[in-house]
Amino acid sequence: MTSWLADSSVLLAREDVDDEHHHHARLLLERPEPIATLDLAYYEVTNVAARAWKDVAAARRLRGVVAALAADGGLVRADEALIAAAADLATAHTLSVYDAAYVAAAAAIGARLVSCDIRDLVSGGLALSPEEAASV
Amino acid sequence: MVSFPDELLEAVDTEASRRGTTRSGLLRTFADEGLRRRSAERAARIAELMRDCASHGGDAAELVKRHRPRT
Q1: Of chain A residues 46-105, which have a CB less than 8 A from chain B?
Q2: Domain boundaries of chain B, sorted by first residue
Q3: What's the whole-model pTM score?
Q4: pLDDT one-digit tens code per residue, B2-26
Q5: Distance between CA A88 and CA A81 in Å, rounded?
Q6: How far apart are CA B60 and CA A117, in angstroms?
Q7: Which of chain A's residues have a Cβ under 8 Å away from the Cβ of B57?
């Protein structure tokens, strides 16, 4: 059984019915297979919901999604080793350390990264899109 | 290596015998069932939370990047 790690864009796409990845993000998060995220997602989903969408109800729902993943054992917490790995990946692949932290977190738990970030992560072979992951 | 208290191991062996399986077989079944049940509960919880999901204009990945702290 494949284990997945979703970045914050996947969680946000699940909330946003306008997002082109909404349907497949929903399929991925609501099937009974192991899926995790990184603690950074708590900040990022809340930041987008509160600052960009200005929607406190959406922010609350999204925090609930991260909490549900955590209750299923699916919350990876950043530590010194993970950030060191992220720094190396960021340099090697010309990524932000934020994106690289998700790549490092997936590697740390033996999962495949899922992201809606086609430009920096999916096209570089560092993640699968929700569509690709849902079809596995 | 997995260790169990003697009393629990005895209960596992009794249940394995009752089901006509081995200790290992029963523990595999319990582990599989436990993991699936927990993931099913998570999936149901997310579906419940997202019943009221809304329209926000799309492009989540770009919004995440745009709202990260600038270095």
Answers
A1: 47-48, 51-53, 55, 57-58, 61, 64-65, 68-69, 71-74, 96, 98
A2: 6-67
A3: 0.89
A4: 888 999 999 999 999 999 999 999 9
A5: 11
A6: 8
A7: 16, 18
